[in-house]
Specification:
The complex is a heterodimer of chains A (about 100) and B (about 575).
Chain A: H1 2-10, H2 12-32, H3 48-72, E1 73-75
Chain B: H1 2-11, H2 15-23, H3 31-50, E1 55-62, E2 65-72, H4 74-93, H5 100-118, H6 122-141, H7 146-177, H8 190-202, H9 210-215, H10 223-242, H11 247-266, H12 270-291, H13 294-325, H14 341-354, H15 361-375, H16 379-405, H17 419-437, H18 439-443, H19 457-476, H20 478-481, E3 486-488, H21 493-536, H22 547-567
Antiparallel strand pairs in B: 1-2
The chains are: A mainly alpha (about 100), B mainly alpha (about 575).
C-alpha cells in the first residue's frame, strides 16, 4: 500500500497537470451541456460552480485569518492558569496517559 | 398495574434496557473474555434495534403520568439504527482499551441515546437526556489530564443548564397542555422556547456551541468516537420531531455551517478541527429542520445518518494518529503516510464523504438538504451552505490530511494503528462508500418516502467544480493555511474568562465596600459600648449599689405587689 502512495507522491507533478486538465474539461463540459436547472439566476452560467468554489475557498481563508489575527488568536497557554494547579486532582488519577484512549 | 408493567416490558425488550443490564457484567470480566463479551453485547444490541417492528411499546401510567418508553416509527428508527451501528464500530475501535469506566460509560451513553430517540413522552426523554450527559462526561474525564478534567467539568455545567431548561420547559408544557406526549411542540409562550433552547444547546447551535469544540478534543481517543456520534444527533432528532418548520432554525443552521468552517481555519489541534466541522455539518441538519418540508426533514435525517459514519471515521483516523504518535497538533505532525498508509487511506474515504464527493455518502445526503433549499428558492441559504461545503473539503479533505500525512516530515516514525482500529475504520469506510454508491438503501430507511435522485448532471457538475476549485484555492494559498501554534477564542471565553474575571472584580471591589461598611458599623457599635459603660460600667451611677442591694430592693417591691394583689 505504501508503495502505491510513494508512486503517487513521486509523480506529483504530472498528476497535478492531469488534474488541472480534468478540471478545465469539467468547466467546459458544464458550459456546453445544459443541465435543465434554472431555479437560481446563476444555474445557467457555465463554470459558476468552479468560480464559486475558488472564491469561497479564498474568502474563507482570508476572512478567518483576519478574524484570527485581529481578535481570536491567543497563545496556547492562554487558559492554562485556570487549570487546577496545572496537575491532576480529584477524578484525575496521578499519571496522565495521553497515548492511550 | 404491576401486571401492565410486566406485560409491557415482558412483551417488548427495550434495547436500552438490554444494553444497560448487559453493561453490569463488564466490571466482572477480564481480558479476552471481556473483549468478546463487549463485542457480543454490542452485536446483540445492534440485532435487537434492527429487528424492532414499528409500533408503540412499554406504555405505562406512573405517578399519574402517561409514559411511553418505546414509540417506534420510521423517524426514531433511522436514528436508532445508526446509533446501534456506531456502537458496534466504536466497540471494535476500543477493543484494546483496558478501562472499565470507559466501557461502561460508552454503553450507557449509547443506551441513553437510543432511549431518547425511542421516548414517546417528555419525561422518559428527559431521563435519558440526563443519563446521556452523566455517562458521556466520563469519556472526557478518563483521558486523565488536567485539561480533560477541566473541560469535562465545563461540559457537565453546560449540559446541566440544557437539562434544566428542558425540565422547566416540560413542566410548563405539561401545565399548559395537560399532555406529556412528545410530538411537535406547537404552543406559544416560554415552554416553546425553553425546550427549544435546551435542544439547541445539545445540537451545538452558536452561540451555545462552545462546549463541543472545548470538550471533544480533550476526550479519550476512543470515547471521542461515541461523543462525535451521539449527543448532537439525538439533538437533531428531537428538533426534527419537536420543531419542524421553525423558520429561525434555517438561518441559525446556515450560520452554524459557516461558523464551524471559520474556526476550523484557525484550529491547530486535529480533533478540534474535526469538532468544529461537527458544528458545521449539524448546521445543514438544523437548516433542514427549519425548512420543515418532507424533503428537508428527510435530508436532515439522511445527513445525520451519513454524518455519524463519516465523522466517526474521521475521528477514528485522527484518534489513531494521536494514539500512535502522542501528538495532536498540525504544527507537530507531518509526513505520516509512509508509516500509517491504511489509516491515511481510510481517513481520506471519510474526508471525501464529508466533502460530498460523488460516490461517497455525504453526496447523497448533503445535496438533499441543498435541494430542499433550492425547491423553496432560498438562494442565500443555498449559497451559504455551498460555501460551507467548500470549507469542509478545504479543512477535512485538504488541510488536515495534508499537514498530518503529507507535507513536511515531522520526524515521527509511528507504526500502523492496531488491527482493531483499522477494522473499525474499514467498517465505517465501507458504509461511506456503500451509501454513496447505493443510496436507495439509505433512502429506504428515511421517515418519508423519497422522491429524489442525487446523481443528476447538475448536482455532479456543481459539486465537482465547487470541490475541485476549492482544492485549487488551497494549493494556491498553501503557505497560509497551515496550523499555527495558537488557540482561538470562542464563546466559551465568556464563561472561562469574562465571567470569572467579573466575579473576581466584584469580589475585590465588593470586598472594599464591605470593609467600609464594617468600619462604619464598628464605629456605631463602639459608641454604643461606650454609652453602655458610662451608665452601667464599674464607675457609673447604676453601679453605685451592690447586686445584693438591688436584689433586696426588687424582692421588697415584688412582696409589696403580691400583698396588694392579695388584698384586692
Amino acid at each position: 500500500m505504501s508503495h502505491f502512495l510513494e508512486y503517487l507522491v513521486r509523480h506529483a507533478r504530472p498528476l497535478t497537470w492531469v488534474m488541472l486538465a480534468l478540471m478545465a474539461l469539467l468547466v467546459i463540459a458544464d458550459a456546453l451541456i445544459p443541465t435543465g436547472y434554472g431555479r437560481f439566476p446563476f444555474d445557467t452560467i457555465g463554470g459558476f460552480g468552479a468560480l464559486y468554489g475558488f472564491v469561497s475557498c479564498v474568502l474563507i481563508i482570508v476572512v478567518s485569518k483576519l478574524l484570527g489575527y485581529a481578535f481570536l488568536y491567543r497563545r496556547e497557554d492562554y487558559y492554562d492558569d485556570a487549570l487546577p494547579d496545572g496537575r491532576p486532582r480529584a477524578g484525575a488519577p496521578e499519571s496522565p496517559e495521553p497515548r492511550d484512549g | 398495574m404491576a401486571e401492565t408493567v410486566a406485560l409491557a416490558f415482558g412483551a417488548w425488550l427495550h434495547p436500552s434496557l438490554l444494553l444497560i443490564l448487559g453493561t453490569l457484567a463488564i466490571p466482572f470480566l477480564r481480558g479476552r473474555v471481556q473483549q468478546g463479551y463487549r463485542l457480543l453485547l454490542a452485536l446483540v444490541f445492534l440485532w435487537v434495534v434492527w429487528t424492532i417492528a414499528p409500533g408503540t411499546y412499554g406504555s405505562l401510567r406512573f405517578l399519574g403520568l402517561d409514559l411511553v418508553a418505546g414509540r417506534v416509527d420510521t423517524l426514531s428508527l433511522v436514528f436508532a439504527y445508526v446509533f446501534s451501528l456506531i456502537t458496534v464500530i466504536g466497540t471494535i475501535y476500543s477493543l484494546h482499551v483496558k478501562d472499565n469506566v470507559q466501557h461502561v460509560a460508552a454503553f450507557l451513553y449509547a443506551a441513553a441515546a437510543v432511549g431518547v430517540v425511542l421516548a414517546g413522552d417528555l419525561v422518559t426523554l428527559y431521563v435519558f437526556w440526563e443519563l446521556m450527559m452523566l455517562a458521556s462526561v466520563w469519556l472526557i474525564w478518563r483521558r486523565r489530564t488536567p485539561q480533560s478534567y477541566a473541560a469535562g467539568m465545563r461540559y457537565l455545567l453546560v449540559h446541566s443548564a440544557s437539562g434544566m431548561l428542558l425540565l422547566g420547559g416540560i413542566a410548563l408544557f405539561y401545565f399548559q397542555t395537560g399532555s406529556l406526549a412528545f410530538e411537535q411542540i406547537d404552543i406559544a409562550g416560554p415552554a416553546f422556547y425553553l425546550i427549544l433552547i435546551g435542544f439547541m444547546i445539545n445540537a451545538a447551535v452558536p452561540p451555545l456551541h462552545a462546549w463541543l469544540s472545548d470538550a471533544y478534543p480533550e476526550a479519550t481517543v476512543t470515547g471521542a468516537i461515541f461523543l462525535s456520534a451521539l449527543t448532537t444527533k439525538t439533538a437533531v432528532y428531537v428538533l426534527i420531531r419537536g420543531f419542524p418548520g421553525t423558520e429561525l432554525l434555517i438561518w441559525m443552521g446556515a450560520v452554524m455551517a459557516l461558523w464551524g468552517v471559520v474556526y476550523a481555519v484557525l484550529a491547530n489541534d486535529i480533533r478540534r478541527l474535526l469538532a468544529y466541522h461537527i458544528i458545521s455539518q449539524v448546521g445543514y441538519m438544523v437548516a433542514g429542520v427549519g425548512m420543515g418540508t418532507a424533503i428537508a426533514l428527510n435530508g436532515s435525517a439522511a445527513h445525520a445518518f451519513t454524518h455519524i459514519l463519516y465523522k466517526a471515521l474521521l475521528f477514528m483516523g485522527a484518534g489513531a494518529v494521536i494514539h500512535m504518535t502522542g501528538k495532536s497538533k498540525l504544527t507537530e505532525l507531518g509526513g505520516l503516510y509512509k508509516y500509517m498508509p491504511y489509516t491515511f487511506l481510510l481517513y481520506m474515504i471519510g474526508a471525501f464523504s464529508i466533502s460530498a464527493f460523488p460516490l461517497f455518502s455525504g453526496f447523497v445526503s448533503k445535496t438533499m438538504v441543498l435541494e430542499a433549499a433550492a425547491v423553496d428558492y432560498r438562494m442565500w441559504i443555498w449559497l451559504m451552505l455551498s460555501m460551507a461545503s467548500a470549507g469542509t473539503f478545504l479543512h477535512t479533505g485538504l488541510k488536515l490530511p495534508y499537514f498530518t500525512f503529507l507535507g513536511k516530515d515531522s520526524g515521527l516514525r509511528p507504526q500502523e494503528a492496531p488491527w482493531n482500529m483499522l477494522l473499525a475504520m474499514a467498517i465505517a469506510a465501507f458504509f461511506c462508500v456503500f451509501i454513496g454508491v447505493y443510496p436507495a438503501w439509505l433512502y429506504g430507511l428515511l421517515p418519508a418516502p423519497v422522491d429524489y435522485n442525487a446523481y443528476t448532471l447538475d448536482h455532479l457538475f456543481w459539486e465537482l467544480q465547487l470541490l475541485l476549485f476549492t482544492g485549487l484555492g488551497f494549493f494556491v494559498l498553501l503557505k497560509h493555511v497551515g496550523g499555527e501554534a495558537r488557540i482561538s477564542l470562542d464563546t466559551d471565553w465568556l464563561y472561562r474568562r469574562a465571567l470569572p474575571a467579573t466575579a473576581r472584580r466584584v469580589r475585590d471591589r465588593g470586598g472594599a465596600a464591605w470593609q467600609g461598611l464594617l468600619t462604619l458599623a464598628r464605629r456605631g457599635i463602639a459608641g454604643f459600648v461606650t454609652g453602655l459603660a458610662r451608665h452601667h460600667g464599674p464607675r457609673s451611677l447604676l453601679a453605685g449599689t451592690w447586686p445584693t442591694g438591688s436584689m433586696v430592693l426588687w424582692v421588697a417591691i415584688i412582696l409589696a405587689g403580691s400583698l396588694l394583689i392579695y388584698y384586692v
